[in-house]
Amino acid sequence: MSRTILMLPGDGIGPEIVAEAEKVLHKINDQFNLGLSFESGLVGGAAIDEADTPLPNETLEKATKADAILLGAVGGPQWDSLPMAKRPEKGLLGLRSNLELFANLRPAILYPQLASASSLKPEVVSGLDIMIVRELTGGIYFGQPRGVRELESGERQGYNTYAYTESEIRRIGRVAFEAAQQRGKKLCSVDKANVLEVTVLWREIMNDLRREYPDVELSHMYVDNAAMQLVRAPKQFDVIVTGNMFGDILSDEAAMLTGSIGMLPSASLNSEKQGMYEPCHGSAPDIAGQGIANPLATILSAAMMLRYSLNEEKAAEAIEAAVSKVLDQGLRTADIMSEGAKKVSTREMGEAVLAAL
Amino acid sequence: MSRTILMLPGDGIGPEIVAEAEKVLHKINDQFNLGLSFESGLVGGAAIDEADTPLPNETLEKATKADAILLGAVGGPQWDSLPMAKRPEKGLLGLRSNLELFANLRPAILYPQLASASSLKPEVVSGLDIMIVRELTGGIYFGQPRGVRELESGERQGYNTYAYTESEIRRIGRVAFEAAQQRGKKLCSVDKANVLEVTVLWREIMNDLRREYPDVELSHMYVDNAAMQLVRAPKQFDVIVTGNMFGDILSDEAAMLTGSIGMLPSASLNSEKQGMYEPCHGSAPDIAGQGIANPLATILSAAMMLRYSLNEEKAAEAIEAAVSKVLDQGLRTADIMSEGAKKVSTREMGEAVLAAL
Ligand SMILES: CC(C)[C@H](C(=O)O)[C@@H](O)C(=O)O
Ligand SMILES: CC(C)[C@H](C(=O)O)[C@@H](O)C(=O)O
Fold first, then answer.
1. Which of A38, A74, A303, B47 could form a disulfide linkage to A316, CB 3.0–4.6 angstroms apart?
2. Is B176 within the bounds of a domain?
3. Residue ending a domain, choose from A257, A281, A304
4. Dihedral, CA atoms, A193, A195, A197, A200, nearest 10 degrees?
């Protein structure tokens, strides 16, 4: 059995951090005899520069065939003035949608070793462990019609469509209920059902699903309140499920509660458990090429990949244990640096994880 | 010259907190000889129970004629299962839209006396003073078409439309640039221009306006990043301008950074500076009728009303000074209570402000 991993470094710090994660995957492949083979491809700005499109056909074909994808990050100021269809982000969105990676899992975990990095008071965030389940291939990101039109008055109007079908809601709901079953058995569905019809349907379907998961306690919260509650008392949450746009906002807010977004991985899965794995942070063009980016979120994304797409729980745990060990050793990249710790480069951090494996 | 204020207590704690603000307004009216006269009306759940509609014609007529409106809050669980068009929220949304109250100003200020109430570290929030300018009569809240339709497949799809015209963007942009001119001269426009066409137009118009306000420094931020930056380093912001939905989320998040949402007022203005003023918090049905709600956000909303709609800056400052004085005296309602302070009821807090005037 050979399984293929597609590496998509992308832009900015992407190549640097993916390089470290790739070394870790090679070593774990040998240690655990996983039979993984590796390919690589272009996406985002890197693909625009090389092939004049953010998602070349070749990349899409490789992605479709791969068992899992490890992505760095896409985007940067040099491509910001391109028309929407040609921007780096379209590479990412195109992969999500072509592979139907509808289930985006974003853990927000506070590493005890990094507790002081949070801008919140220790008692508010210590032990924080939330899982955000974000719908990733529907909602306003992909809704039609969309664009800019000229009205009869002669002025322009920009418009987008926020839409969900019952089955789209049901399949992400199931993923979230199942995640809650594996964890603290509490699921909070976030919507704006007091204003938006599309989220009235969302709430109805979530309530329907409740019968299939009687061991999970379901609650509902309006998105404005959720944004507040994450700041006030984030530990009240176990699993949160929400649509694409609200999930984009709330998962970044939740990630930042930890103060160390350079540590947080994510998974985007389809119904065959094929998945794309990427750090929660972006391409950080301001520090690209300096060798100072934190590779741990990408390395932890590789661990998630082993767990969710390759069914190699032990190998995943080995990586996670190695990351925990280097944190215990006091090694820190600049983004998570604190007094008394030892500042290391991207590469030194990667090497330390390899050594700890 | 007689000017009319319409009091709309609404639901939950609304009547209790509006009663205290009304006493304050009566006293300030006498002290400063403002020539205000007062009316009252039904809105939200209270109007549904009495008149079977969340916004009776009589209320709308009074509102249209009033110089300013002071609203408590709307909504509660007993009306949550009503169809969308009959819900308390429609009373609020109907007032906003009929009166064209497109400019929602939401300050997020940390009162030094209440610094410890924040869930953020003191150094992150001390001195916090942000103004969020939210577009209030357009965007996805009011976009057409909307609803739930049956697809050919037989399944249902919920949908809403997120739309803005150039002129809608321009008029809220002007309000925000002007607010920035009065303050720290920094304006951050929040959008999702890497994904949503409607916000590409938003960004273009904001950039256009820059020429009219050369003294204001304009920046742009994606909404997911803004949700993060508010947690990480909120003091980087001066004025934030954004659309209706993003503004709903970010203004609540920003309010909660202070830890004392019971202190925060808001103003919703039209182009004639007619305005509706209300606390940022909701109707809090869980504590309604107990006499323990914090009336200060409503009292401070009355101060905003004097400033923005009635052009009575001195009277506004007098109220704000009185509020500051009662805080200095150590008086606290339950929501902002801390060790060593004196816990007071809604009414006692109102009386203390009166005494301090
Ligand atoms: C880059 C952008 C299109 C993307 C999104 O909005 O989904 C990013 O913010 C994310 O959350 O993965
Ligand atoms: C009650 C609700 C409709 C309203 C909104 O979403 O605008 C509220 O959350 C607010 O922010 O004033």
1. A303
2. yes
3. A257
4. 10
pLDDT for res A316: 98
Among all bound ligands, the one having the nearest atom to the CA of A193 is 2
Distance from residue B248's CA to the centre of ligand 2 (Å): 7
Tens digit of pLDDT for each residue in A228-257?
999 999 999 999 999 999 999 999 999 999
B272 and B253, same structural domain? no
B1 has pLDDT over 80: no
B144's tokens: 């057409």
Q: How far apart are the first and last CA of chain B?
A: 24
- Which domain covers residue A134, as residue numbers? 129-257
Q: What integer pLDDT is reported at residue A1 of this predicted model? A: 62
C-alpha B55: how far from chain center: 19
Pocket of ligand 2 (CB under 6 A): A 194-195, 224; B 75, 89, 92-93, 248
Distance from CA of B205 to the nearest CA of A (A): 11
> Tokens standing for B171?
């008029």
The answer to whether residue A116 sits within a structural domain is: no
Which residue minimizes the CA distance to atom 10 of ligand 1? A248
Calculate how far, in angstroms, residue A14's C-alpha sits from the geometric centre of ligand 1. Answer: 15
Structural domain contains residue A136: yes
Q: Which of B223, B257, B291 is the last residue of a domain?
A: B257
Binned at pLDDT 50, 70 and 90, residue B76 comes out as very high
- Residues A97, A62, single domain; the answer is yes
Place of tokens 């390899």: A354
CB contact under 8 A, A227 and B227: yes
Question: What mean pLDDT do residues A193-202 have?
Answer: 96
CATH number reported for the structural domain that contains residue B86 in this entry: 3.40.718.10
Nearest C-alpha in B relative to A145: B161
Q: What is the pLDDT of residues B200-223, one digit of tens each?
A: 999 999 999 999 999 999 999 999
Residues A251, A297: one domain? no
Residues in a beta bridge with B8: B71
Between the CA of residue A263 and those of A251, A348, B227, B324, what are the distances in Å?
14, 16, 18, 42
Choose the mutation target among B89, B252, B281 for the interface with A, i.e. most A CBs under 10 Å: B252
Please tell me whether residues B95 and B1 are part of one structural domain.
Answer: yes
Neighbours of A53 (CB within 10 A): 17
- Note the pLDDT tens digit of each residue in B101-127: 999 999 999 999 999 999 999 999 999
> What is the residue with the minimal CA distance to atom 6 of ligand 2?
B248
> How many angstroms does the Cα of residue A262 sit away from the middle of ligand 1?
16
Q: Closest Cα partner for B21 from B304, B336, B328?
A: B304
Please indicate if any CB of chain B lies within 8 Å of the CB of A249.
yes
Ligand 1 binding site (Cβ under 6 Å of any ligand atom): A 75, 89, 92-93, 248; B 194-195, 224
Using the beta-carbon criterion (under 8 Å), do A160 and B224 form an inter-chain contact?
Answer: no
A139 and A204 co-located in one domain: yes
Q: Which of B194, B222, B260 to mutate to test the interface with A (most CBs of A within 10 A)?
A: B194
Structurally, chain A folds into a number of domains equal to: 2
Q: Examine the domain organization and report whether B204 and B287 are in the same domain.
A: no
Q: Are B249 and B240 in contact (CB under 8 A)?
A: no
Q: Are residues B243 and B285 in the same domain?
A: no
Tell me whether residue B60 is in a domain: yes
User: What's the mean pLDDT when you consider all of chain A?
Assistant: 97
Cα separation, B59 vs B98, in Å, equals: 12
Nearest Cβ partner of B148 from A197, A223, A230?
A197
